Amino acid sequence: MTSPVRVDAAFDLVRAHVEAERLPSAILGIATAEGTVAVDAFGTDDLGGSRRRPVTVDDTYRLFSITKPLLGIAAARAIERGLLSSTAPLADALPSFGAHRDDVVRLRHLVSHTSGISEPPMDSPLPPREELLRRDRDFAAGTMSRYSTIAFEGVAALHEHATGVSWDAGVTAWANEIGATGLTLDPETAVSLPDAAAAGLDLERFTATRSPGAGLFGRADDLLRLGTELLRIHGGARDGILKPATLDMMLRPLTGDIPRLDPYPAARGQDWGFTWNLRTRAPGLIDRDTYGHGGWAGTEFWVHPGAGVAWVLLTSRAERPGVDIDRIDNAIVSAL
C-alpha cells in the first residue's frame, strides 16, 4: 500500500476485522478526484476443503446492491439525452404491469424504494421480469419507503425501452469511458461467499437471475475509478460520464419524511435519491455529506463530496457481527 495521506487507522480497522475472523477477506481502497491514493487487501479466499489463497487488490467480488446505483447512472444518462423521464410510468415499458393497482408506479418510485411492489426472495426460481409482473402491492406508490431489489427490474425495463439496449450494456458503456472494465455479470472467477447458504441464499440460483438490482461483480479498481469520476464531476468537470446537473438530480432526496419500513427504518438516518443512499441524517457519521450504497455480502461504496474522498470496501460475508462501517468511514474522512 502506498499513500500520500495518513489513512492508517482505517486500514488497521479492516485488518483487525480480518484477523479476528469477523471478515474472511477484505479490500479497502480510497480515492480522491486525482485518483486512487491507497488500496490494500487482507485475508484469504476459501477454495474449498483446506485450500485457501491470499486475496489481492485485483480480485473480483460480488457487488450485490451496489449494482443499483451503477444501473442508476445508466438510467440518468438516458434522462440526460431526453430519452427517459423520472416521471415515466413503468407501464410504458411493461403495459401489463399494474393492471391490478389503482396507482401509477413511475421511475422515481422504482429508484427510491417507494414503488410499493412486494419483494420476492432474491433467489426466486422465477425470472425477475416474471416476478415483477406478478407481485402484489404493499402500499401505494410514493406513500412509504421499503427497500426493494425487484423494483430495479422495472428500472432495467424502462432503460431498455428508452434506449434500445440492455441495462448491463448501458452500465458497460459508461464504465468503459472511465476504464472500469471489470464490471460484469459473467466473471470467470470471483471471491467465494462461504456463508451464503447459511444466510438463506441459493447462490447459484441467484447468480442465474442476472439481477439488475444486485447481480454485478467488480473489482476495487472499478469502484475507485467511479469514485474519482464522481468527485471530478462535483468539482465541475463537464467531460464526465454525467453532467454536474444530472449528478445533482440523482442526489436530490426523494423520500422526505414518509414512513420508512424495515430494513431501513427512520432511525437509520438516510434518505433515498435517484438510486443513491443519502446518509444525510446518519447518527454515527462525522461527515453526513455523503452518498453511496452497500451490498448484501458486506461490499461498500461511499462518496464524500465536501471532503473530496471516496472509498470502497469489498468483502464476502453475509453475516458480519461486530463490523461497524461508520467507524471505517469516520477514520477515512478524519484522515483527509
What does it look like?
By secondary structure, this protein is of the alpha+beta class. It has one domain: DD-peptidase/beta-lactamase superfamily (Beta-lactamase), CATH 3.40.710.10. The protein is built from ten helices and ten strands. The strands form two sheets. Strands 3-2-1-10-9-8-7-6 form an eight-stranded antiparallel sheet, with helices on both faces. Strands 4-5 form a two-stranded antiparallel sheet. α1 runs antiparallel to α10 and α2 packs across α6. The longest helix has 15 residues. The mean pLDDT is 95.
Describe this structure in a few short sentences.
The protein has 336 residues and is an alpha+beta fold. It is built from 10 helices and 10 strands.
Helix coverage percent of residues?
Answer: 25-40%
Strand count, sense and barrel status of the largest sheet are: 8 strands, antiparallel
Average pLDDT works out at 95
CATH C-level class is Alpha Beta
> Kindly, what is the distance between the CA atoms of the first and last residues, rounded to a whole number of angstroms?
17 Å
What's the CATH architecture? 3-Layer(aba) Sandwich
Describe the strand arrangement of the main beta sheet, using strand numbers: 3-2-1-10-9-8-7-6
Number of domains: 1
Output the structural class. Answer: alpha+beta
Number of helices: 10
Q: Would you count the extended β strands for me?
A: 10
The fraction of residues in strands falls at 15-25%
Name of the CATH homologous superfamily: DD-peptidase/beta-lactamase superfamily
CATH topology: Beta-lactamase
- Overall geometric form: globular
Low-confidence stretches: none
Order of helices and strands: HEEEEHHHHHHEHHEEEEEH
**For the CA atoms, what is the radius of gyration?**
19 Å
